[in-house]
């Protein structure tokens, strides 16, 4: 058993030191009825080679994004990750350390968290950012709960452009504590519709840009309307790279930004682990969820960093905490921060432009196909098209032909009557040849 | 024989010099430990460490949606980035360096096979919304993981998607809430009973879901006071949340009685599975009457802690709660695997959804890789060695330090209080900081709250006897120094860490949570 | 000056009560890093949580020892929470309350009784 250092002799010597006759003596507090003799009914110990074979066989059954023409987005994006990122996050000192509760021997983690918080605050255009939450969808749920605490109101108005899974994940949690939600009808250009739904009970308005249909919106007017009514504006971003090209949520008046940071430094991973970015205004700090790293000095006056403001958190406040969250997405923060440091502002803007250009090229290729209607007028790297047929069926047929052409909107929300809508994303990894294959195959499938 | 050039190469150190002369360095660096500025304080403005094709356009088609102001993001070339992060890394303690005996955290070895497997493109380079026909292997892996977890716990179902232990607690309580709703009892059952020794997430989660928290007393031997529990159970109680083995490192002897009383009162038994490592392969929570229990894959099943996350907290569920599990989950249809993503058909009672996608797939791969490696025999040995190591530490230190609950064996962690430090003017915190100087990460301190000056030591099964002996020897020397009145060693510690003690009051009084450009600079931020 | 078992103090001048936390409480909390005082106009009843005081590792609710309408919260504490440590029973006051019923004070401890109470903890 390669992960267990004790030898039979060690065990015997240790039992003797303890004064126990056998290991069973140490389990005497377990009620007799609950003790299990022998092994549970599962396979026995296996060597590296065997495990690697078994898992590789499963991995081999999946079509990977890098090996086929690939246009899936809808909240998770295929980007190139520099080799440095994965090397650094596998360093023992980052991979195998715990939450930095002993700051004297955790300055590595603390400093990158401080840098991460600064990067996220600047990227989102906000005053402060925390050290991350689980993912974008849980960040949105936390944002809504925070808004009810700040405004002492009880209703969230959610735009029809917000990712349906984000809406569902938020409603699941906030409904449990009696917070009402008004989720508006799904529509490609839906964001401005929230303005009419704001009333005196509205704690917050939640909009997404670019939204799930890809539509990029200047939400300044929405911010003004929300603030005039005493409500907060929560801006959801599922594609973090977009903020390298588009106006930041902060610039447009957001009070809370709940974003998915996967696009920077983190692989698709079939949905997780990802990284929830959470940023807000300084005056709302005490009502925020999650952990913060702050600057201070040590006993000799040297600059250092510590976890701070922890009286908001569960280990101190217990049932009065702002959230029950106990972890952050530590290693994913590190991956984000390294990738962002490598990009720098120059690289990020370039990357964002390349994404946009690939998406425009993809749109142009699809627009030429008879029966395909482009729905999204202004987008970053993703747009919606209306097909003359059920989009889920088309996606399946295309997949059978080796092309992952996007996500049918109906998979996220089957009740919206948008069965013919396909969400198509392109990134810097998209090849011109992929676009040609996509357009050719789609034309063929639709003509059939 | 000819004489080699020996200029500048004396063979004995410091010949003729004062061995005690140790000047401070001129730059602030200390040998291998470099002082490393923030990336924002370097020369990275305008620089980039990636080579991308030059964009052909400038985004003008997006008009006034385009961001114009500086963002405030410095860049580093690849060598600079590598140095920056490697220098930072050297200021961290790590499992791979030495014992990391944080009680209730289970800091065990993280096998690198797990990392290799999680990075197979077939797992890492697949999209959560690809057609299911193109991810059958991924769904198979989730199904396999579910099989291992349900078999090891003796529970019929598992919700994989919770993203961490606290998220798992949320999942379990939401399922309990849904079950009471289905029975029409939700309005009357508004309380959750939580022992005083519970981890902070338990009461925080109960409150997060809208329950009021009622504390249950603890007995003098560190366990749930069953009489107090019984007196508080009733038709207004939705659930109890009990950690077993508990946060004092002890098995709840009356666990069967606790679950019987709970069920008799019409409530559900939520078990905090943080300490499953102590019993895996030997005790099945299903046999204890548990209705829901989260499993921290980053504790028991060795996925890396990563400096505070990401974790993963699948929740096993009893027959009574299984129908309410959140979407999505995997079904083996016989001719393939299906991901059930919506509350319809077989999932119509699902309480909703906890996150955007399928949960922490990267952690599923690592955990399954670990479980397959150990097998059922290895996992049983894991629990035994974890318990043996903790009891060994307890036995070797109990003559010098005061064990909080001395009667009987402990499970996977040994709990001491600060009684033995009385009169020394040294606190648990001081003692912990002195451990840093000796090269060890401190144990968990001041938790559980029910033990004064608590020191909770969890060695895990992946420490060798030699390493444990080294740790024990260091603890004995420190304890001896404490009792001998060597107060300064403790009060000022650590002396040999990258930094001395940090001023947390200053950090909290005027929070500085981000780098800001110095006054007068034209940098963004 | 009168004290409660929860370590609040109250001092009456005419119909205005000044309230805060005792020196003992401030010492026990350690370095105070944050205080949330009530806004003027808020009505409080005896036992209501009307303020929050935090040190680095602890957070406590502060309960109103007397009922009435808050006239003023101590604005100094927002920027200088350390005042509570420096002068808990003077400059570190939390709020001034216009008292509706002063008889509650009769049930509270005087300094000697409070000191005696502290020795029992």
Automatic annotation (TrEMBL), chain C:
Residues with N6-lipoyllysine modification: 57
Listed InterPro entries: 2-oxoA_DH_lipoyl-BS, Biotin_lipoyl, GCV_H, GCV_H/Fam206, GCV_H_sub, Single_hybrid_motif
Record field: transmembrane: none
Cofactors named for this entry: (R)-lipoate
BP GO terms, sorted: glycine decarboxylation via glycine cleavage system; protein lipoylation
Keyword Transmembrane: no
Keywords: Lipoyl
Cofactor, how bound (note): Binds 1 lipoyl cofactor covalently.
Family: Belongs to the GcvH family.
Name the UniProt record assigns to this protein: Glycine cleavage system H protein
Gene this chain is encoded by: gcvH
């Amino acid at each position: 058993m390669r992960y267990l250092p004790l030898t039979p002799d060690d065990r015997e010597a240790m039992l003797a030191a303890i004064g126990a006759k056998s290991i069973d003596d140490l389990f005497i507090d377990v009620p007799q009825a609950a003790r299990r003799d022998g092994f549970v009914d599962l396979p026995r110990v296996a060597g590296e080679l065997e495990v690697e074979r078994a898992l590789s066989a499963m991995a081999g059954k999946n079509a990977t994004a890098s090996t086929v023409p690939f246009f899936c987005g809808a909240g998770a994006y295929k980007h190139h990750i520099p080799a440095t990122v994965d090397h650094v996050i596998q360093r023992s000192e980052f991979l195998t350390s715990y939450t930095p509760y002993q700051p004297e021997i955790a300055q590595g983690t603390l400093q990158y968290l401080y840098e991460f918080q600064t990067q996220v605050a600047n990227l989102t255009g906000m005053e402060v950012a925390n050290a991350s939450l689980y993912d974008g969808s849980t960040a949105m749920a936390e944002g809504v709960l925070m808004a009810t605490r700040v405004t002492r109101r009880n209703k969230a108005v959610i735009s029809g452009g917000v990712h349906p899974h984000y809406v569902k994940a938020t409603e699941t949690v906030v409904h449990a504590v009696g917070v009402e939600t008004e989720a508006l009808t799904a529509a490609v250009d839906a964001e401005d519709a929230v303005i009419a739904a704001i009333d005196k009970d509205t704690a917050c308005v939640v909009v997404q840009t670019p939204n799930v249909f890809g539509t990029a919106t200047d939400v300044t007017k929405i911010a003004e309307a929300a603030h005039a009514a005493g409500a907060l504006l929560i801006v959801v971003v599922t594609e973090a790279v977009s903020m390298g090209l588009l106006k930041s949520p902060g610039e447009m008046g957001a009070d809370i930004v709940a974003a998915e940071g996967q696009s920077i430094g983190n692989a698709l991973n079939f949905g997780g682990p990802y990284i929830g970015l959470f940023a807000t205004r300084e005056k709302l700090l005490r009502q925020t969820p999650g952990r913060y790293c702050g600057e201070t000095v040590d006993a000799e006056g040297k600059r250092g960093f510590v976890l701070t403001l922890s009286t908001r958190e569960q280990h101190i406040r217990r049932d009065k905490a702002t959230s029950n969250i106990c972890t952050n997405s530590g290693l994913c923060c590190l991956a984000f921060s390294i990738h962002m440091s490598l990009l720098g502002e120059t690289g990020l803007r370039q990357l964002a432009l390349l994404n946009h250009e690939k998406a425009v090229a993809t749109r142009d290729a699809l627009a030429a196909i008879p029966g395909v209607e482009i729905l999204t007028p202004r987008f970053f790297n993703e747009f919606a098209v209306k097909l003359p047929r059920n989009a889920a069926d088309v996606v399946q047929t295309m997949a059978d032909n080796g092309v992952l052409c996007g996500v049918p909107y109906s998979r996220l929300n089957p009740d919206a009557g948008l069965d013919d809508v396909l969400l198509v994303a392109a990134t810097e990894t998209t090849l011109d040849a992929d676009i040609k294959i996509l357009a050719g195959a789609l034309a063929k499938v639709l003509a059939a | 024989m000819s004489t080699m050039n020996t200029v500048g190469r004396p063979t004995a150190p410091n010949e003729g010099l004062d061995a005690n002369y140790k000047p401070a360095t001129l730059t602030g660096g200390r040998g291998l430990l470099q002082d490393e500025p923030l990336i924002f304080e370097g020369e990275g403005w305008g620089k980039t460490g990636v080579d991308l094709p030059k964009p052909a356009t400038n985004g003008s088609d997006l008009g006034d949606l385009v961001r114009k102001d500086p963002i405030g993001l410095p860049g580093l070339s690849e060598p600079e980035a590598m140095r920056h992060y490697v220098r930072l890394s050297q200021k961290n303690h790590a499992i791979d360096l030495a014992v990391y005996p944080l009680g209730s955290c289970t800091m065990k070895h993280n096998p690198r096979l797990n990392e290799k497997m999680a990075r197979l493109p077939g797992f890492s380079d697949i999209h959560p919304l690809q057609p299911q026909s193109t991810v059958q292997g991924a769904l198979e892996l989730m199904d396999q993981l579910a099989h291992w977890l349900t078999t090891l716990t003796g529970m019929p179902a598992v919700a994989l998607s919770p993203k961490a232990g606290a998220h798992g607690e949320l999942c379990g309580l939401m399922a309990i809430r849904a079950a009471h709703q289905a029975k029409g009892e939700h309005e009357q059952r508004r309380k959750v009973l939580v022992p005083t020794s519970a981890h902070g997430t338990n009461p925080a989660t109960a409150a997060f879901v809208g329950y009021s928290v009622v504390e249950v007393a603890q007995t003098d031997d560190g366990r749930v006071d069953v009489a107090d529990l019984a007196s508080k159970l009733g038709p207004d109680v939705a659930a109890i949340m009990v950690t077993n083995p508990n946060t004092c490192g002890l098995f709840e002897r009356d666990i069967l009685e606790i679950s019987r009383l709970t069920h008799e009162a019409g409530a559900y038994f939520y078990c905090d599975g943080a300490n499953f490592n102590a019993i895996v392969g030997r005790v099945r929570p299903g046999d204890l009457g548990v209705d829901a229990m989260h499993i921290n894959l980053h504790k028991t099943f060795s996925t890396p802690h990563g400096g505070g996350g990401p974790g993963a907290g699948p929740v096993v569920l009893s027959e009574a709660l299984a129908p309410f599990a959140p979407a999505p989950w995997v079904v083996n249809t016989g001719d393939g695997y299906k991901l059930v993503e919506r509350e319809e058909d077989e999932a119509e009672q699902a309480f909703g959804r906890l996150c955007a996608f399928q949960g922490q797939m990267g952690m599923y791969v690592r955990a399954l890789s670990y479980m397959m490696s150990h097998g059922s025999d290895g996992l049983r040995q894991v629990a035994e060695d974890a318990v043996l190591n903790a009891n060994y530490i307890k036995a070797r230190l109990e003559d010098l330090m005061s064990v909080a609950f001395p009667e009987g064996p402990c499970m996977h962690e040994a709990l001491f209080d600060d009684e033995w430090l009385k009169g020394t003017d040294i606190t648990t915190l001081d003692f912990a900081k002195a451990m840093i100087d000796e090269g060890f990460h401190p144990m968990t301190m001041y938790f559980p709250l029910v033990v004064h000056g608590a020191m909770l030591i969890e060695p895990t099964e992946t420490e060798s006897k030699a390493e444990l002996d080294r740790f024990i020897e260091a603890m004995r020397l420190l304890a001896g120094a404490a009792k001998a009145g060597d107060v300064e060693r403790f009060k000022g510690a650590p002396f040999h860490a990258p930094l001395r003690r940090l001023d947390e009051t200053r950090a909290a009084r005027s929070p500085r949570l981000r780098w800001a450009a110095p006054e007068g600079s034209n940098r963004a931020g | 000056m009168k004290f409660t078992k929860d370590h609040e103090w109250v001092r009456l001048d005419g119909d205005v009560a000044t309230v805060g936390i005792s020196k003992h409480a401030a010492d026990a909390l350690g370095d105070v890093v944050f205080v949330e005082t009530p806004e003027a106009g808020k009505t409080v009843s005896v036992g209501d949580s009307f303020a929050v005081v935090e040190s680095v590792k602890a957070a406590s609710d502060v309960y109103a020892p007397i009922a009435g309408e808050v006239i003023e919260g101590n604005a100094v504490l927002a920027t200088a929470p350390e005042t509570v440590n420096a002068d808990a029973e003077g400059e570190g006051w939390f709020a001034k309350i216009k008292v509706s019923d002063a008889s509650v004070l009769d049930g509270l401890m005087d300094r000697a009784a409070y000191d005696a109470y502290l020795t029992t903890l």
